[in-house]
Amino acid sequence: MSSGALCTGTSPAAAVLAPLGRDGGRALMLGHVHPDADVLGTLLALGLALEARGWSVTYGGPHPAPPALDFLPGVERYRRLATLDGAFDVAVLTDCPNPQRTEGLIEQARRASAVVLNIDHHPDNRRYGDVNWIDLSAAATGEMVYELLLALEAPLTPAIATNLFTAVHTDTGSFRYSNVTPRTFRIAAALVAAGAEPAFVSQALYERRAPDALRWLGEALRRIEVSDEGRLAWLALPSDGVEEALVESEELVNYPRSIATVRVACLFRERGREVKVSLRGKGDVDVQRIAAEFGGGGHRNAAGCTVDGPLAEAMRRVLAAVRRALAERKGPSAASEAAR
């Protein structure tokens, strides 16, 4: 249930602009657990734009930025936050549909901030902000922050453009996902014109492997399994199976997804007593609904959740849910057979 104003549409409403329109103030750019380029790029871009107008900005979340994203302009300012220092005029969360992903920092932000601004494009967003701008037509939250900066008449510096271009690039799977629209490419072109360099971003994301990374990648890919009918593939990584740095720098779930017959791919990452699950689909199965069964969410073709371990039990439960979803796409008789 919404806790505040709900704004939709491709352009930011007055309620979205109001907390950010003044010259000067104190802002919190609050990220979710294990921040990725989608959230870091958008938070850094907006924060840098506010700083140019005299704002004091704090960047951080429950986990630090991963080393693989150390090329993002301003990312050295992003830090792990255990507590929040002082009061803020606004706290901004981007690309974070579930406030639980802040590991309690959202509650501190509500107490410390005059306004909590929630900017997102996920259909399962919990509407937890005082102001919630949810644009389901946006392929990436980076598109929304770009429109926000235009409405604020903020200059698009090369640093801001690089952050936003990286966010759009990763949130769309390098412009490969089905949610990409002409609007996505228009915004990407504008960001390149403002100073973002696609070659630099691509090289930074995909061509900075450590010398032994391919060996670790090979060890991971050896674990891929495919169901007998070929529609489901999965990759399970025990906590001691692959270096965490590799997992953070590689979209490992896309490897099983790339198999021609596969409709749903799963990545299971054991972390202590929990298992982090990434789900990818190819259009005819809504993996967001599968993730929602386990308290997660995301998009129709890209979603995730965290399931209690051990690894084998978490895999059994999630794969059973995926098989049910695949059976439903075949028709009622197949679904009945899968339920037996």
Per-chain topology:
Blueprint: E1 5-7, H1 14-17, E2 25-30, H2 37-51, E3 55-61, E4 79-80, E5 90-94, H3 105-112, E6 116-120, E7 131-134, H4 141-151, H5 158-171, H6 182-193, H7 198-206, H8 213-221, E8 225-226, E9 232-237, H9 244-249, H10 254-257, E10 264-271, E11 274-281, H11 287-292, E12 297-298, E13 302-308, H12 311-330, H13 332-339
Parallel strand pairs: 1-7, 2-3, 2-5, 3-4, 5-6, 6-7, 9-10
Antiparallel strand pairs: 8-9, 10-11, 11-13, 12-13
Structure description:
This protein is an alpha/beta fold and 340 residues long. It has two domains: 201 residues, inorganic pyrophosphatase (n-terminal core), CATH 3.90.1640.10; 127 residues, Diaminopimelate Epimerase, Chain A, domain 1. The protein contains 13 helices and 13 strands. The strands form two sheets. Strands 1-7-6-5-2-3-4 form a seven-stranded parallel sheet, sandwiched between helices. The chain has a six-stranded mixed sheet with strand order 8-9-10-11-13-12. Helix 3 links the parallel strand 5 and strand 6.
